[in-house]
Amino acid sequence: MPTKVCPFCNVGNDRIIAANEQAIAIADGVAVTQGHTLVIPREHISSIFEMASETQYKVWELLLTVRGLLQERFKPAAFNIGVNDGKEAGQTVDHAHIHVIPRYRGDVDDPRGGVRWVIPSKAKYWD
User: Per-residue pLDDT tens for 45-100?
Assistant: First the structure.
């Protein structure tokens, strides 16, 4: 039986939009907004909680670089930063990664609650 190949361990250089020695950033293949980007540790680990301290630092350092690139190129109004860590949290690729999702005025009717909408019945806490 063939071994499943990790799509984040085999990213072509042509897809990398930013990188450092510990992490890469690529455009999300199924972006939810224009500029949706993934920041991925180079080391194949399943969870962000498995990252060594130096890797954590470098991943977040690259995330800041990506944010700057996205601000310059797409001029979003805001960002959602998200991690699906584990199957029950919706992680579908078994390689840690962080979503950087630019948000634009009017992209949804009411953006309040942001990432809380992963459990819709608990998202709207302000009523």
Answer: 999 999 999 999 999 999 999 999 999 999 999 999 999 999 999 999 999 999 99
Is residue 23 a part of any domain in this protein? yes
The answer to whether position 114 is within a domain reads no
Number of structural domains the chain divides into = 1
Question: How far is residue 24's CA from residue 41's CA, in Å, rounded to a whole number?
Answer: 6
Tens of pLDDT along 7-36? 999 999 999 999 999 999 999 999 999 999
Distance CA 104, CA 3 (A): 40
Q: Smallest Cα–Cα separation from 86: which of 120, 26, 46, 56?
A: 46
Residue 7 lies in a domain: no
Domain that holds residue 75: 13-106
The tokens of 56 are what? 């954590």
For residue 116 the two structure tokens come to: 């809380």
Task: Give residue for tokens 């992680």.
Answer: 91
**Backbone phi, psi, residue 25, to 5°:** -130, 135
Q: What CATH number is associated with residue 94? A: 3.30.428.10
Please give the model's pTM, rounded to 2 decimal places.
Answer: 0.93
